[in-house]
Design goal:
about 230 residues; Spore Coat Polysaccharide Biosynthesis Protein SpsA, Chain A; 9 helices; 9 strands; seven-stranded mixed β-sheet
Length: about 230
């Protein structure tokens, strides 16, 4: 079974409780789940720390996600526990600060990963905050046993993509239609880490309200460029 596993937490140092900030009347983390629902998957899981469980449970239920609580700082272990609990075979990994995931690109990279049985797959060249990662559960569980640095355990996938000798990696450049071609490469920022990011997200979300969620990579790039001139 392929599962979307979304990691989220409440305590962000730069923007406290950003997951609950309202984006057009619904919490940010709900908007992320709403977008991820457009990616075909047998199971959707919101993986959070224990201290976020009571806040996130009703939102997960409304969005059609299962909820799972695990370690706060050791996010890799949280994923491994969720994989074992739900008997998952492949994971589409997403994060709770990215409400503008390119769902069409996510479907594409996961299909590519499954076709070649990649342990890890992710597109390069996407705008920051637009992508997901596709990871085999077996590779994730191996990383959970072997990864030792705090960085590897907090960010889940670095142990995999930094050890190409151990894992089958698939890291192609994204198709041109989804690439960030802003004047300054990397300046198209779709994630929410700061208040400035959130304010930008609110403006962009308003412009995209009537656009379909499923095939939206090119639409987001176009709207972002129109609004912010990059």
């Amino acid at each position: 079974m392929t599962a979307i596993i979304l990691q989220a937490r409440l305590d962000s140092s730069r923007l406290p409780e950003k997951a609950l900030l309202l984006l057009d009347g619904k919490p940010l983390v709900f908007r992320v789940m709403e977008a991820l629902n457009e990616i075909p998957s047998g199971l959707r899981i919101l993986a959070c720390p224990e201290d976020s469980l009571s806040s996130f449970s009703p939102l997960a239920r409304e969005a059609g996600f299962q909820i799972f609580a695990g370690p706060k700082e050791d996010v890799l272990e949280r994923y491994c526990q969720a994989v074992n609990h739900f008997s998952v075979k492949r994971v589409i990994r997403a994060t709770g600060d990215n409400p503008f995931v390119f769902t069409d690109a996510a479907v594409s990279i996961n299909a590519e990963a499954a076709a070649i049985n990649a342990d890890y797959a992710g597109y390069g060249g996407l705008p920051y905050g637009a992508g997901v990662e596709s990871v085999s559960a077996a590779a994730l569980l191996r990383a959970g046993k072997e990864a030792s640095s705090p960085f590897e355990r907090e960010h889940v996938c670095p142990y995999l993509y930094n050890h190409g000798e151990l894992f089958r990696l698939h890291r192609p450049l994204a198709p041109v239609r989804w690439q960030d071609f802003s004047l300054k490469s990397g300046s198209m920022r779709l994630t929410v880490d700061t208040r400035e990011d959130f304010d930008r997200a609110a403006e962009l979300y308003a412009a995209l309200k009537n656009e379909p969620l499923r095939s939206r990579g090119m639409t987001i790039i176009r709207r972002y460029t129109e609004i912010f001139g990059q």
